[in-house]
Hints:
Order of helices and strands: EEHEEHEEEEEEEEEEHEEEE
Structural class: mainly beta
Mean pLDDT: 96
Low-confidence stretches: none
CATH architecture of the largest domain: Roll
Strand content: 35-45%
CATH superfamily of the largest domain: Diaminopimelate Epimerase, Chain A, domain 1
Number of strands: 18
Number of helices: 3
Helix content: 10-25%
Amino acid sequence: MTRLNEIPFVKGHGTGNDFVLIPDLDGRRGLSVDQVRWLCDRRRGIGGDGVLRVVRTEHMPEFAEWSGIAEFFMDYRNSDGTVAEMCGNGARVFVRYLRATGLITDDEIVIGTRGGLRTAILRGDGIITIDMGAAHTAEADVTVRANGHEWSAVPVFAPNPHAVTFIEALSEAGDLSQPPEVRSGDLFPSGTNVEFVVPEGERHVSMRVHERGVGETHSCGTGACAVAWAARRRDGVEGGDTTYRVDVPGGTLEVTETAAGALLLTGPADLVAKGNVLLPL
């Protein structure tokens, strides 16, 4: 007999940003904050930077009106159990799961997220592009302090909040297991991701990131988008489509900002394990 708390899971990652996927197509299961934390615990649970609950959009009351456009909704939680608007690496892993399990067959689909409807394009080589929408900034003085240094930062909403900080060497940021101090007035009432960025060449940057509710991760999709958006303006690039290479500790992503302002995030997504887990009640 199957235990009541025994549920299936799949583990996946996008450039080292790893997630536990929980299929809940009928929206009956749900997940508590404590259950999300347990799933993401690398010693007591499965381990991950976040949880992706796979649910049909019609079963998400706040977003059910989208079900005619997006059959599936990505219910994303940070490893501390908090809800985030969007996760770019997670979206690629989510779409990879839908294809691998036969839930979708098309090469272009729309999924629902708390950051809005997002179009995904799947290539035959396992590379996936997510249209992340447009980013915007705010008129505010933002400073970031870490490892005894202080820098000015660029606030970018993509749609998650980010404080993009250009520095001379990634090592200057020091240990990012704890969140850097961010001073921004009331611009980030729910906290912010902090990116530390080093220009590496023409339209090429490297970055490290502390994600709110998670810690330092090997990659951050919305962070890469925010960094490319800020780098383009820092470099004075105008007009047309512009692509930046963004190196993260877990690999490389590409971000294209279109002439219309949309940010297209491109990178790999891998599924690495599946099984059942005895989820605490």
